[in-house]
Amino acid sequence: MRGAAGTAIEPVTASSPSSSATSPSSPGTATGGIPCLPIRFFARADLLARISIDPQVCGGKPCIKGTRIWVSLILDLLAGGSSEEDVRAEYPQLTHDDILAAIAYGAERAREQIVPVPAV
Predict the structure, then answer these.
(1) Which of 30, 47, 71, 96 could tie 62 with a disulfide, CB 3.0–4.6 Å?
(2) Buried b (16+ CB within 10 A) or exposed e, 62-86
(3) Where are the beta strands (DSSP E) in the chain?
(4) What is the pTM of this model?
């Protein structure tokens, strides 16, 4: 697999001699008992490439490429307590990577703009 800069990215798995993580498909613990999550090897640019902003589609709102599903809709559903499985059941054309792309896009926007939140 190649990263955004074209550099080779080699996945680390439990069967790798120098592995410090469990299989990418399931959570577990790294060597030494340190908890770890499944490893995904997507550069941010690869994820963001799944987002389309076209003035002729949904008024220019960011959508998952090839769909009319707004990124904000996916984020609202997740923020409202829906699981990824719930979202994908409602919108079967979405993939796991589309959900990650929506989250990555939201993270990028959050770095660029401060959204006012209610005072506590």
Answers:
(1) 71
(2) bbbeeeebbbbbbbebbeeeeebee
(3) 28-29, 35-36, 51-52, 63-64
(4) 0.62
Paired residues of 36 in beta bridges = 28
Of 10, 9, 43, 39, nearest to 25 (Cα)? Answer: 39
Q: Is 29:57 a contact under the CB 8 Å cutoff?
A: no
**43 vs 2: CA distance, rounded Å:** 9
* Diameter of the chain measured on Cα atoms: 53
- Measured between its terminal Cα atoms, the distance across the chain in Å is 46
What distance in Å separates the CA atoms of residue 36 and residue 105, rounded to the nearest whole number? 24
94: enclosing H helix or E strand: none
How far does CA 14 lie from the centroid of its chain?
23
Tell me the per-residue pLDDT of 59-97, one tens digit each, with 9 for 90 and over: 999 999 999 999 999 999 999 999 999 999 999 999 999
